[in-house]
């Protein structure tokens, strides 16, 4: 394990310079989205037995004990960032908001760069999600194209036939308003910030639609 971890900074690194340009081009070649720096998703690593301390917090919605794994991959499905260790009962959005990526987004996201993720994650200028309830053909087409790009992260969790269990976080409780269950954890200042990020994300998503379609 020490030998493996010693390679982390060499093998799991955020794209910059020429590598960043390759990632942009790679995602663009998939379906036309520009400036995508990565795709994000979460999965669950199933535990064989209940943890001795606070086992209830590791009990997930599929009635299994697990720990969370959040991964960000490039267009090839190569991991460029990960967050691991949160108990299975914790929502993807909370893992995301407390992750290294989110806490250091100003140093990782440059210019028009952004991630693609599913509805478990809050909309912002640096994370673009699909429409939860598309109301016209443009929004439907956006969702289809978005999925073509984002599927690389889902495939990355399965590439070696790992027996990791993904939970479907795209239920009605995770609407754009969004993640109301998490709002109770935030104070008013944080909520205002989240609302501002969401509104800015909505504008950026609409700009992407205009450019693409």
Overall description:
This protein has nine helices and five strands; from the N terminus they run αααβββαααββααα. 41% of the residues lie in helices and 15% in strands. The protein has one domain. The longest helix is centred in the last third of the chain and has 25 residues. About 9% of the residues have low confidence. With 213 residues, it is α/β, with parallel strands linked by helices.
Q: C-alpha Rg, in Å?
A: 17 Å
Q: Provide the number of structural domains.
A: 1
Low-confidence stretches: 169-187
Overall pLDDT level = 87
How many extended strands?
5
Biggest β-sheet strands, sense, barrel: 5 strands, mixed
State the strand order across the main sheet: 3-2-1-4-5
Q: What structural class do helix, strand and pairing data support?
A: alpha/beta
Which structural traits does this protein have?
213 residues; alpha/beta; single chain; metal-binding; DDE Tnp4 domain-containing protein; five-stranded mixed beta sheet; 9 helices; globular; nuclease activity; hydrolase activity; HARBI1-like
Short description:
The protein has about 210 residues and is α/β, with parallel strands linked by helices.
List the helices and strands and how they pair.
Elements: H1 2-5, H2 8-11, H3 17-31, E1 36-46, E2 66-73, E3 79-87, H4 92-97, H5 100-103, H6 105-108, E4 114-116, E5 127-128, H7 137-158, H8 180-183, H9 188-212
């Amino acid at each position: 394990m020490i030998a493996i971890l010693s390679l982390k900074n060499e093998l799991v690194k955020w794209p910059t310079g020429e590598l960043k340009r390759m990632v942009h081009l790679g995602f663009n070649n998939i379906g036309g989205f520009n400036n995508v720096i990565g795709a994000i998703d979460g999965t669950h690593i199933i535990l064989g037995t209940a943890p001795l301390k606070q086992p209830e917090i590791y009990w997930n919605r599929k009635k299994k004990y697990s720990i969370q794994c959040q991964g960000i991959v490039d267009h090839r499905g190569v991991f460029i960032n990960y967050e691991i260790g949160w108990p299975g009962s914790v929502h993807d959005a909370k893992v995301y908001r407390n992750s290294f990526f989110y806490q250091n987004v100003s140093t990782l996201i440059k210019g028009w760069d952004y991630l693609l993720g599913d509805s478990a994650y809050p909309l912002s200028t640096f994370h673009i999600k699909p429409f939860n309830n598309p109301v016209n053909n443009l929004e439907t087409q956006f969702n289809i194209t978005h999925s073509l790009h984002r599927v690389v992260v889902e495939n990355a969790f399965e590439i070696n036939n790992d027996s990791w269990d993904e939970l479907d976080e795209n239920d009605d409780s995770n609407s754009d308003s969004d993640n109301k269950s998490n709002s109770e954890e935030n104070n008013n200042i944080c909520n205002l910030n989240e609302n501002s990020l969401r509104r800015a994300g909505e504008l950026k998503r609409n700009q992407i639609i205009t450019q693409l379609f």
